[in-house]
Amino acid sequence: MIRAQSFIINGSFDHTISPLDRGFAYGDGVFRTMIVRSGLPECWPQHYQKLVADCAAIKIVCPSAELLISDLQQLFSEKEVAEHSVSVVKIIITRGEGERGYAPPAITNPLRVLIKTDMPAYPSRYFSEGVHLYVCNTVLAAQPLLAGVKHLNRLENVLARLEWTDPNIVDGIMLDSAQHVIECTSANIFICNGNTLVTPNLNQCGVAGITRQRIIDLAHLIGLTVKVESFNLDRLFAADAVIITNSLYGAFQVKGIQQKTWVQTSLAADMREILKV
């Protein structure tokens, strides 16, 4: 159950979302999810930069950073800030209200929603032993105009996530129609061979997360080079190590996929360390 004042809409706790909102009707919007410590969002410049870029990709004017930070600060009490609370905040931006039909109004008033939830309690074994993944049957469709964008149309991910119920499976690998590895349902993915990291090319589909980009930018600090290129499951299974990343847990090393297993190394821990930079 969502606690009182755990979400704010257009800067108000009393505002409601109209059924005519295009985010509700068509998934016409974007979102970001981030850790907030003591009322301050982690990696805010990167998150906001990506929010602006994703809004621009679907031709929505992104609310200002100042406005979003003002909304966010209203979600946290002085006590929470003083006690250095750790929460998760999801920011949703939609195009706003419109009439029936796909064509948006000439002038729109974007809707902004911020939702505060508890930080997930990840089992310690995920960090020390690694995680297991599932290979999804649901494939990602190619759409270059939306490639990399974290838009609200996530039905492919929903269908993929419905494919397994095993609590030991942490996430599922999603492929495209050409059987290239693209991402997980809620994470980006890297393979490692020697001193080289490879992460999938996302120019046709998939979400380009900020943690993925930060790993690309910072991998040299742990002696690794990064390549962005397409690869299939055979190449993934032949890798020395497989890593999944997102903004909440940073990086997990993959322990097993189907019958394939890997020996745990320090790679994910090293990644989590450089992500603190």
Per DSSP, the total helix count is 9
Q: Which regions are unreliable across 5 or more consecutive residues at pLDDT < 50?
A: none
- CATH H-level superfamily title of the largest domain: D-amino Acid Aminotransferase, subunit A, domain 2
Largest sheet: 9 strands, mixed
First-to-last CA distance: 35 Å
The tally of structural domains comes to 2
Question: Care to describe what's here?
Answer:
With 277 residues, the chain is of the alpha+beta class. It folds into 2 domains: 7-118, D-amino Acid Aminotransferase, Chain A, domain 1 (2-Layer Sandwich), CATH 3.30.470.10; 124-274, D-amino Acid Aminotransferase, Chain A, domain 2 (Alpha-Beta Barrel). The protein contains 9 helices and 14 strands. Strands 6, 7, 8, 9, 10, 11, 12, 13 and 14 form a 9-stranded mixed β-sheet that branches. It has a 5-stranded antiparallel β-sheet with strand order 1-5-4-2-3. The mean pLDDT is 95.
Question: Which features does this protein show?
Answer:
277 residues, 9 helices, 9-stranded mixed sheet, D-amino Acid Aminotransferase, Chain A, domain 1, 2 domains, D-amino Acid Aminotransferase, Chain A, domain 2, alpha+beta, globular, 5-stranded antiparallel sheet
Short description:
With 277 residues, the protein is α+β, with helices and mostly antiparallel strands. The chain has 9 helices and 14 strands.
List the helices and strands and how they pair.
Blueprint: E1 7-9, H1 22-26, E2 29-37, E3 40-41, H2 44-57, H3 65-74, H4 78-82, E4 86-94, E5 111-118, H5 124-128, E6 131-135, H6 155-161, E7 169-175, E8 181-184, E9 188-193, E10 196-199, H7 210-218, E11 225-228, H8 233-237, E12 241-246, E13 250-257, E14 260-261, H9 267-274
Parallel strand pairs: 6-7, 6-13, 10-11
Antiparallel strand pairs: 1-5, 2-3, 2-4, 4-5, 7-8, 9-10, 9-12, 12-13, 13-14
